[in-house]
Structure formats: structure tokens, C-alpha cells
Amino acid sequence: MSTQHEEAVGQSLAARIEEEGEVSVVDCYQCGKCSAGCPAAEDMDVAPSQVLRLLQTESPKHDERALRSMSIWMCIGCETCVSRCPQEVDLPRVMDFLRQESLARNLAHQDADDVVAFHRAFMSSVEKAGRLFELGMIGDYKLRTGHFFKDLGLAPTMFFKGKIGLLPHGGANQVEVAEIFARARQARKD
Amino acid sequence: MSRVGVFVCHCGENIAGTVDVAAVAQAALAMPGVVAALDYKYMCSDPGQTMLKKLIADERLDGVVVAACSPRMHEPTFRRTTLESGLNPFLCEMANLREHCSWVHDKGPATTAKAIDLVRLQVEKVKRNRALAPIRVPITKKALVLGGGIAGIQAALDIANAGNPVLLVERSPSIGGHMSQLSETFPTLDCSQCILTPRMVEVARHPQITLLTYAELEKLEGFIGNFRATIRRKARKIDESLCNGCGVCQQKCPVKKIPDAFNEGLANRSAIYVPFAQAVPNKPVIDVASCTFFKTSKCKACEKLCPTQAIRFDQEDKIEVHEVGALVLATGYRTMPVANFPEYGYGQLTDVIDGMKFERLASASGPTGGAIKRPSDGKAPQHVVFIACAGSRDRAKGVPYCSKICCMYTAKHAMLYRHKVHGGKATVFYMDVRAAGKSYDEFVRRAIEVDGVSYIRGRVSRVYEEDGQLVVKGVDTLLGGEPVEIRADMVVLATAVEAQDDAEKLAQTLHVSYDPYHFFAEAHPKLRPVETNTAGIFLAGACQAPRDIPETVAQASGAAAKVCGLFSQPELTREPVVAVVDRQAPPLFSSCTGCLLCKDACPYQAISEEAIKNRAGEVIKTVAQVNPGLCQGCGTCVALCRTKAIDLQGFSNQQLFAELMCI
Amino acid sequence: MKVGYYPGCSLSGTAREFGESMAAVARALDIELAEIPEWTCCGSSSGHMTDRLLALALPAHVLLKAHDAGLAQVMAPCAACYNRLATARHEIEASRAAKAQVEKVLQRKIESLPRVLNLLELLAQERDHIAAKVTRRFEETVACYYGCLLVRPARITGFDRTEDPVEMDKLVAAVGGKPINWSCKTECCGASFSLSKTSVVGRLGAKILRDAVARKAQAVVVACPMCHANLDLRRSSINRRLAAKTSIPVLYITQVIGMALGIPAKQLGLARHLVRVTLPGPSAQTPPAPRPAVQ
Description:
The complex is a heterotrimer of chains A (190), B (663) and C (295).
Chain A: H1 3-10, H2 13-21, H3 33-37, H4 48-56, H5 60-68, H6 71-74, H7 80-84, H8 91-104, H9 113-129, H10 134-145, H11 154-160, H12 174-189
Helix pairs in contact in A: 9-10, 9-12
Chain B: E1 4-9, H1 21-29, E2 34-40, H2 46-58, E3 63-68, H3 71-84, E4 92-96, H4 98-102, H5 109-127, E5 135-138, E6 143-146, H6 150-161, E7 166-170, E8 184-185, E9 190-191, H7 192-205, E10 209-213, E11 215-223, E12 226-233, H8 248-252, E13 258-259, E14 268-269, E15 272-273, E16 285-286, H9 292-296, H10 301-305, E17 318-324, E18 326-329, E19 333-335, E20 352-354, H11 355-362, E21 383-390, H12 406-420, E22 425-430, H13 440-449, E23 454-457, E24 462-466, E25 469-476, E26 482-488, E27 490-495, E28 497-499, H14 503-510, E29 537-539, H15 549-567, E30 571-574, E31 579-581, H16 597-601, E32 607-613, E33 619-626, H17 636-640, E34 646-648, H18 653-661
Helix pairs in contact in B: 1-5, 2-3, 5-18, 6-7, 6-15, 11-12, 12-13
Chain C: E1 2-5, H1 16-28, E2 32-35, H2 44-50, H3 52-68, E3 73-76, H4 79-94, H5 96-106, E4 115-118, H6 119-125, H7 127-132, E5 141-145, H8 154-157, H9 167-174, E6 178-179, H10 193-196, H11 198-214, E7 219-222, H12 225-231, H13 235-242, E8 250-252, H14 253-260, H15 265-268
Parallel strand pairs in C: 1-2, 1-3, 3-4, 5-6, 5-7, 7-8
């Protein structure tokens, strides 16, 4: 862990989200409209409005519960919550922040391994090829998760319909992308 | 030679704790024109006042400076004492050593030096004060009440019962307002019309009240005690003196399919109509936009059949000008339309209705005779969902405030539904229950404990239609945010209370302040709730803020009391701190050049033109003229005037420059 | 007309027919799709869900490339790409801190970024043009499915109504179709859970298709490759959830328009769908052979 992270641990997540993400979790008055309309709510251990409540108390115990929740990984990013929120609280932004923080602190819920693996495989593919190489990404995903037989039935159909390329598509400026990834990594360390 | 007396107050420790008051008094004595100075613990007290009077008499003072607290606190006190001593009260000034000095600085020589400077400023000013007389303005002792709902009705009755004539102007064909649309009122479940109609009749019969319905205020000129109201009496197309309210015209009118606004579109009315059976006055009106005769010159059934020949197709609007002394604004509210809710169907789902529509369903005099029926198929709904806070407390919808009445009327609606549809299920989705009035909380508990209404804490994210039912996607936050999905037969939205559509326009016509939500602004949120910042115009009811009936009635009586207070004086007395345009000897007549920039700048429309004429009646010069009754003494005109022809009495240019130059 | 074009990674892969029908329709309407040279990935959902800096930098990089190529506007047919590009542009304009961070990662100053449009916005401008060029009316009853990212969040998209949008319905009506009134226009399909939580896609897709089928739609029309994949490629998961076999096809709006403009099925990639495209109406048949000239 870097010193920046250690310093950050002292600050509550709510304070950091206010600073970095410009979202005030205190704006939420716990009406629950987000939870009511969330398509993924039934797969969440903590309802969306409750995730905000956990942050509002600014207690390390509750902050950690939020970061360890399955909810942040089951969030689909559909933006329904913020579009209905009477206080216009940017919950999707809060979720993005919590996911990033959860990964940084290695607190991701174990049932979320597949979801995390997907994101990592996706970003890794983009870094390597400049664009998503679908076959490569799927292969990487299978290696990370061990789900070797997933969609095996689907694969030949997709191949014959011309929807799966065997090679990464050329045309992207991969060097530029690799540089961007490297600089982003460096910036996070600073 | 001036003889000014300076009185330095300790104000206990408030001033003396930080300022060396004895030193201030001593320094004052050395100032040119000051003949006496003292300091005392509490100048505003009886002994303090006595000291003031004695020194005025003993030293033959012609000017007084009281160095104490803010003039907003005690200027009237000291001016009264000065008057009682036989000295003109406007020869008394205050130096603020408290709010402007001791309360904002630390103890020390610099603070005392500042206090001395403040005294010096006022001494220089008061030496140049002139004796002023308060301005007396006549009062027309007649009130105009704008709006004929319960607020207007109550205000009109109170003012009239005190012996003052009242003009009650209502823009719809009948008085009664929203209260006449309600079925029952909380917390007693009194039938709304039963308690309202006696008042309506009282208004119609009162010898002191002139009722003008189907009329609107077009223009208001003048000032407190002396308003001129231009009122448009819209043409009913009926000779009211002949009409006996028999109703044959309505029965026989062939145009019958106009959605009835009184019944919130649940029923239809004819082109010639009386808004509801208990209307006051019980005289119909022809809706010219829908009448066959006005559209195609055919029909005239009503004219043919009217037993008293009261129909007048060629009747025109009449403009009347009335002189009144005070106005009471009682123009009421509207509710946010259901179309404002995309997540609840954009107003296109027939069985998603608002509270007012539910009132019409529940009302015994409504289109269903009080039976709760689905607007779509007329069946009794077996499960009704009530959504509180629909649009209120909702920054995203532009209404951050609480509408105050919805928690109570939602409980009422749910109870009425349960009383009328036995076995029906009522669910209320709420955020908080706001039931702060007398017997209010008990009312809500009754809904839950006795009438079996189910209360779920959480908001509804979406309502959509499926197989003729309404799918309600809510949540139970008290169960940790667990989603709750209900298939309901009807959904009632407790929509936000908003200002009338044209509230802004009316406020601008009247020069009354209003807030960002177009509710009219009270003069002070705590201490002056029934007055506006426009002298002579008072507020009653929901046009100022969402409120329930008991508060509306109380406020209306309060506004009436203010009007009666105004009318109880023979004349209106106002402070003479007003602008005056100078006069000089001929051939100049006035240093005013007649540019009239001040007229445009005056926020109170207090400046007009005056023509200075010679003996033959020819105009020599046009100059500005200030109406002392309207002028509020803000000084904008004085600052603008390029020739310094206009000056403020009590705060003249000479006085203010003297103050500046002496520091 | 000419517009900057950002196809996005999926249009050459799983959404190949979207790219094909997009190109065909653009040709028929004389719209020049100026592809951003050497364009790179926008980061899509995985970007913003795991890495704030990349989530802003990758789309900004794309927009800067468009800017360098002299393009004032960029249209992205993929709803996720569109949303990412528009969001990055919005945040960079709104927040000095965000702009500074992105400039540092990209090592260049950002002066201005091209406007970002979604496919429906572009086609809406062309609606009359499209209607005029219809050679065979697409007379089907369809459910227009918008998904999430074309209309939400409103402060970024500023496009159409967020609940019950109408732009796609208007396009379908313009080519002769009958768009139905239904309740799942903007209900999420499960998006990027296609691979990692396929059961969620099955559940959400089942709700969508159940409603469309119950209201007698003959097809679902989409404008997003993720939605298409979840409702088409993942049909077996949906069917399992519904405990029934559904055959309702999923078409891209560009394919619907293409059919009405008389573009052959092959050019529209209709055969690439997993769920066979069979429609009861006249558009289902292959275009009639040209009539011999009257002698």
C-alpha cells in the first residue's frame, strides 16, 4: 500500500467522494426510490439506498461493509437510479468510486470474482491491442475464472456467422493506448 | 447657534464593556454646537428618558443625539420622548455605538475613537436637521379581496362584519375555490361543502359585500389607502337580474361533451353552465369557445327556452374602476399536474390520478355519487396505492419544499376508500408522515390502526400498465430497502401544491414580491406573515405558501384585522423621510430640468410629472413631482439626479456631506 | 452530409451486422461516415467501473483524434460508446480538475472536443429523407427497445424522453411500421453481465421479451449492440427463464430502415442473427423480381 492510500484511509469514503467525485452523499434522504427501480436490486446484498446510508454514517466499519458488498459488483450501470432520484444524487458515480476503491484495497466480494475478472480481461485486451479483441478477451476471462466450457455451444455458431474474428482487428494505434495506460498507472501512484 | 445635547448610553455592559463611554461624552462636549453631554447606564429606561426631557428643557436644546443602540431598536422611543419635551421629533438622531461599534470590535482606544467619530457624524447631521411633520394621507375605507375561496370568503366576512365595505372579486363563475371540490376535510371528516356553503351564502347576502364573480383584476394603481383597481367583468352572456337559476338552459344545451374542470375531467358539462349545484351566485355562464351559436351562429336553444328571457348573446365585458384602500390577496393554489411525472406515465395512464380527482370521486355530489370507481372502466378498485410526496421535496422536479397538506389528505383518502370499498386494500407509500396540527397525528394513526391502511416507507420508482392493472414498483426502506411490487387497480398521486399558473403575472401587476416558486412573499417570514412589502396589500391563504384550511382561515382573519386596523384610523400617518423636488424663485422655478430619470428609476412609482404653469395656464416647465404617500425614502432618485434638484428630507445631501467631511 | 464516425469495437465483431447495415443505410441516404483514423477503444463499461482516469482519458483520446481529423461532430452507433464519449466530454468541460487530470495522462492540452451524437439523433434529423426514399413499407408491429444509455442520464444525453422515449418509434412509423406502446422501452437488459452473470441477463431479458410478446409485437427493434446481444445471442438463457421457446427476432433499427429502403438482406446482415429473422408482413419476403417492361 502506498502512503497516499494510508493517508486516505483516515478520511471517510463520503469525504473522499465529495472531494474527488463531487457527490454529496448527505443529499440523500433515504427515500428508497433508487432501490425501488433498480433492475439488479434482487441480486444485491445491500440495497442501493442502503449503500448510501452506509457511507453517510462515515464510520470505518460501515465504509468497509460497503466496499465488501456484492451490491457494487451487481450494479449494472444502467443509470436508472440517478434519473429518478429526487435529490439528483449521482449514485452511479458513487458505485464507480466504490468499485475502484474496493479493488485498490482488495476487498471485492468473492462471489464477484467473475465480474471483476471480466473487467480485468476487457481492459487488458484493450491495453494490448488498442481495441477490444473479443476472442482474446474471452480466452483471458476463461483463464482467470476457470469457466473453460462457458458458451462453448455458442462459439461455433458465432464463428460461422462471422461474428468472432480469430485475430485482433488492426487499425488502432495501439502504442498510444499502451502509453495512456502506463501514464494512468503512474498518475495513480502519485 | 446650535444647542445640541449628546446622551451616551452604556447599554449595561453592551457598550460600556468595550467603549469608554465617559470619554465619549467628554469628547462630545468639545464638539462645536454641543452644549451638554452625559452618559448613563440605560437611556431607554424611565430614568433615562426623564434625564433626556430634563436636559432638553434645562439647556433649551434644539437638537438631540442619543449615542446608543441601533435606531431600528429605539429611534421611535427617543423620538417620542423628544416630542413629549416639546421638540420636533425629527431633531433627534441616534448614533449606533452598539451594532456598529461595541459589538463588532474589541475593547481599546481605537474602538473608543470610532465611537467618538460616530457621535461626531450625528452631531454634524443633527445641526442641519429641519423640523418635519408626518405626512397624512386620506384612506378610502373599502377593501378589495382578490379570490373567492375560503381565504377570500373569510377575509371578506371579517372585514365586512367590522362595518367596512368589501369588494370580493373571483375569476371563476362561482366562489368556493378548491374547498368546494373537496369531499371531506381532515381531521374531522366534515363534509367540505356543508361547512363551506353557509359561508358562501353569507357572503352573497352580506350588505357590506359586493360580489363580483367571473371577474378579474386587470390593473392596480395608487398606494395604500388610495388604490384604483381596474376590474374586467367578463360577459356571462346572461342578464343576472333576470336569471332565476332554474337550470333549463343547461338541460337543453345541445353541447354536452365539454370536460368539466370542477370535476377534474371526470364528467362533462354543457356550453352554458353553472360550475356546480351549490354555486354562488347560482347564475350560469356561456363558455363562448364551446358554444355552437358563437362558433356557427346556429342554435340559440337557451335563449328560446329561458323562461325569463335572461340570455344576452351580445353582452360585452365590462371594465369597472373601483377606489379601494387595501387589498387582500387570496388567490389560492393549484396542484402539480400528473403529466409532470414521466415515471408514473406522463399523465397518460387513466387510472393514475391526483388527489383532487380522488376528491371528486369520493364526493357525494361528484360524478360517481361518492363511489370510488376506476376512471378507465368504472369498476371499484380492489387495491389502491397512494403515493405521497409526488413532486414535493423533489429537487429534480424543481419543488424542493414540502407541500404540507398531502400527508393528511392521503391518510384521509385512504380512510375514505376503506370506508367505501369494504375489503379493498389501501397502501400508502410515504417518506415521512407530517401531521403537526391539532388532532392530526391521531387522525393518521386512526387510518393505520382502525381503518387498516397499510403504510410502507419508501418511494415508488415507477408505475406502468400491464393487463389492465397498474404495476407499482416501490420499496420498503424500513426492511432494508427491499423492493415491493404491487399490482394495483388505481394509483393516487399526492401531487405538489404549487402557485397558480399566472401568479407571477399577478404579482407583477400588483408590484408584490414573490419567491422562486411564485408564491407571494410575506413582509417578514416570522413576524409579518399577512403583510407584503407593498403597503396596503395583505396576504391570506395558499397563495403565500401551501397550507391547510384552519391555517388559511386564521391567516385570512389576520389579514382582515390588518385591514380593519388600517381603516380604523381617520388618516394614514407616514414618516416624512421622503424625497422632495426643490422650488426656486422665477425664472428658474426649480433646479429640476425635467429629465425625469428619477421617475424611471423609482422602484415605487412615486414620481410623476408636474407642469408649472403661468397665469394664462401655459406650461412653462415640466418638473418631477414626488408623491409623499408612495415614496419610501430609498434615495435612488437623489443619487441619480444630475442637478441635485431632488433631495431626501431627513437625509439631505447637505447633511450627509457634512457627516463625511467631519471625520 | 458528413459526420465523424466512431464504430466502436463491437461493430466489427459480435455486432457486425449493425456495422454492415449502418454502412448500407448511410450509403443509401448519402451520409458520409468519416471514420476516425486509427481510433481506439473508449473503455466502455469496464473502464468507468474500475478506473476513473482511463474512463476519462480513453474517450478523450478518441475525441481528440476526431478533432485532429477536422471532425466537428462524432456519431457513435454503440450506445455505450456514445455514452462514454459524451460523458467524458461533459466532465472535461464541467470540471477543471478532471480536465487537468486528463491532459496530464494524454500529455496534451484540450481546447475543444467535437460534439457527440447517438445514432437515433442522427437518424431523427434524416427522418423525412428516409420516408421519401422508402420503396417497400416495413409493415410490421414492433416493440422499440431503447435500453439505458441512449436516454440516460438526461444531463449527459439531453435526448428524447427518459421514460417512454419516442424517436425510434417515429423512425419505425416513418418507414411504415407500427411501433407498440409497451412498458419495457428503457428497462435494462443486463448490459455487460452478458458473459460474467448471464443469469441476470436471462432474467432481465425475459421480462422484456415477455412484455413485447404479450403485446403482440412481431419483432423487437434495438439501437444498441449490447442490447442486441443480450436479447438475441443470449436467447437460450431467456428461454430457460421463461420456460418457453420464443422466436421473436431482434432487429437493428438500421436493418429495419434498410429493408424499407430496399437494401438486400445480405447487405443488412440479417442472416447473422441467432434468432432467425422471420416476419409475417411483406418485408419478410425477398424483394419482388423487377417487372419486365411492358411491350
